[in-house]
Amino acid sequence: MDYFGAIFAILFATSCMVTSSLAKDRNDLTFDLMEEYDKKVRPSGSYNKSVPVIFKLYLNQLLDVSEVNQKIETKMWVLQIWQDPRLVWDPVDYEGLEYVHLPTTELWLPEVVLYNNADGDFAISQFTKAKVNYTGFVEWKPPAIFKSFCEIQVAQFPFDTQNCTMKIGPWSQGMDLLDMVNSDWKVEDHKCDKPDLSLYKQSGEWKILAVGCYKHYIQYACCRGPYVDMTYYFVLQRRPLYLLINILFPTFLFSVLTCAVFYLPSDAGEKMTLSISLLLSLIVFLLVIVEAIPSTAKGVPLLCQYIVFTMILVCLSIMITVVVINIHYRGPTTHTMSERVKKIFMVWLPKFALSSTMKKLDPYAEKKLKAAKAPKLCNDITDFSGRDPTEGRHRVMGSDVRQAVDGVNFVADYFRDQEESQKREDEWKYVAMLLDHFLFFIFIAACFLGTLIIFGRRLMEIGGEEQLFLENEDKCLLNCK
Ligand SMILES: *[C@@H]1O[C@H](CO)[C@@H](O)[C@H](O)[C@H]1NC(C)=O
Ligand SMILES: *[C@@H]1O[C@H](CO)[C@@H](O)[C@H](O)[C@H]1NC(C)=O
Ligand SMILES: *[C@@H]1O[C@H](CO)[C@@H](O)[C@H](O)[C@H]1NC(C)=O
To answer: Which Gene3D superfamilies would you find in this protein's record (predicted)?
Structure first.
């Protein structure tokens, strides 16, 4: 009996051991999967079969667009899904467990890199865990910050649109080993999933107009077998409001202020002070804003054109003001006004003057006046005596009178000259005033026309561009969120 009892006990114990080793729990799964796993081996059934990997980008944030270094910095989630036949299990064996999260440092990973990397990591450097389900599908969605090269077009700054691309693909494995596919698992076709913007946080500086993706198979000169890559592009449009308010508008005001110089009367003696202060403040302003302008020589940005234009206006106004002041202070002792100038500035130009209160100076009025002037004073006196001037007594008296008459004549001539010279000076002043009058309107027109010409075409283009993208693209791109 003892004998049988002992055998029974042994049998019971072994059966218990067997059942306990059969009833696995969740904690065993990782160990079982990893026990014989070699992450250096590609997860394909045969040596010549390529591994298809679903590849999709989720654009999360646009961190920075650097015009000077020609690079953009983006925060992405990079979804990759592939099937690894070694990671298959039956959920029944593991308490119905259908998926596990495994550390990707222990798994085979598709080697994808950013071809047009500008700075930092070429490949994904965050090895977050991957979700593996019992059919062997590995789903890995690591976050990544990509700094990619992007050729920045500065010519339209600050109303520019950029088209930045990111070329992503396996670096060392050709398409016979690794293939990137879209979510339909179609190998060797040229379909590619657009970057997903559902997680996108709007950037304050850029608006995304369009996104897209192309898939290429490229045969490089160096290496065997075509290589697959997915090239994503992002069409970005700058939101110009900040630059508009902080740079463009003040610059415009400077150019309008320039016109005020011509409205200031020359006699006030403040014209030069105003011009020079304008020039100085424009230069100080430029020193402050110079950092906001992309410093590349690959084209002159619109904003720079505009600033140069304003600078030219201010400098021109200073030069012209000097000329106007010079004309204003001319007089008969130093200058004579030619007939042609007289005709242009006193007869012809005043007809176009826009001010109704401005007096018109007639240069020929005084000639008529001169013609109608009284005869010389001495004649009057001789006439006034009413006698023959050769008469003796009268001649004796006459020498005194003549002296007096000469004196009076001299004084009269002096005042006449004075008047004449005053008139000539007034003529020069009138010419200067007319010049100011017309330059005022010319400069105002130049301010507005220049602004329109420099920015008008681009602004019209932008309107068309947005419309075009609105029609072609997912409407959600622009309006949602
Ligand atoms: C892989 O090789 C086997 C035998 O060498 C061949 O039968 C099969 O067609 C090849 N498959 C591919 C996709 O080239
Ligand atoms: C396993 O994961 C893949 C990829 O996410 C998915 O397509 C598939 O439906 C999943 N299978 C099961 C049984 O959940
Ligand atoms: C942006 O670049 C891509 C790839 O080079 C091109 O296919 C696309 O048409 C471009 N988009 C625009 C708006 O220029």
So the answer is: Neurotransmitter-gated ion-channel ligand-binding domain, Neurotransmitter-gated ion-channel transmembrane domain
Nearest residue by C-alpha to atom 2 in ligand 1:
48
Provide the token pair at 249.
Answer: 């508008």
* Residue type, position 92, single letter: V
Cβ(363)–Cβ(346) below 8 Å? yes
Instruction: Grade residue 375 by pLDDT with cuts at 50, 70 and 90.
Output: low
Tokens (6 digits) for 474 = 């997912």
Checking if the pLDDT of 366 tops 80, the result is no
pLDDT at 244: 92
Length of the chain in terms of residues written? 481
Classify 141 in phi/psi space as left (phi over 0), alpha (psi -120 to 50) or beta: beta
**Which ligand number lies closest to the CA of residue 177?**
1
Is the pLDDT at 477 greater than 60? The verdict is no
Q: What are phi and psi of 453, to 5 degrees?
A: -65, -40
Please tell me whether residue 448 adopts helix, strand or coil conformation: helix
Superfamily holding 28-239: Neurotransmitter-gated ion-channel ligand-binding domain (2.70.170.10)
**Protein residue whose Cα sits closest to atom 8 of ligand 1:** 48
Q: Which atom in ligand 1 lies closest to the alpha carbon of residue 50?
A: 13
CA distance 86 to 83: 9
* Residue 428 predicted with pLDDT over 90: yes
- Give the ligand at the shortest distance from the Cα of 465: 3
For residues 379 and 7, give the distance between their C-alpha atoms in angstroms, rounded to a whole number.
Answer: 172
Question: How many CA atoms are closer than 13 Å to the CA of 143, on its beta-carbon side?
Answer: 6
Q: In 10 A of CB 57, how many CB atoms? A: 23
Q: Where in the chain is the domain with CATH 2.70.170.10?
A: 28-239
Identify the residues whose C-beta falls under 6 Å from ligand 3. Answer: 163, 165, 233, 235
Average pLDDT rounded to a whole number, residues 315-321:
95
